[in-house]
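Quick start: what a row looks like.
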Amino acid sequence: MVRGPGFWFTFIYYTVTATTVAAIASAPLLFGGNIGLEALQTALPAGLMIGALGAYFNHSIAIDFATKNASEFRQQLTTTLTDLGFNRVADPEPDLADFEVYERGAIGKWFAGRVFVKLDRQQATIVGRAGLMRKLRDRLSQ
């Protein structure tokens, strides 16, 4: 099964990145251009906050749906993903042959990630970023 980065990996990634950017940005103003321990200590609270928000919305999760009619569910899912700006990828990579892959076009795909769908007769598994999966679960559960 396709699994993306989990909560802790995403948290660490966003925290380190945000702390580094905040330290570099604040160093000329607050510390005369010195990027040292003081700059990192000052930037760490902002990095932790941004890391927590980034991890909450962007870590990967999988949601499962029980389906009675796979083709009807596929149509509902495709319509919902189209409404959210996603289109099906015609020829995904060979290692993703078992999945239907959806992504946004052009620049949007870099910010929204991909959605991976695996449909069986009575179950659908959808993997993507947590924020999007929460929206999708709410729309498909109605």
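That is the whole record. The mean pLDDT is 89. Residues 7-30 form the longest helix (24 residues).
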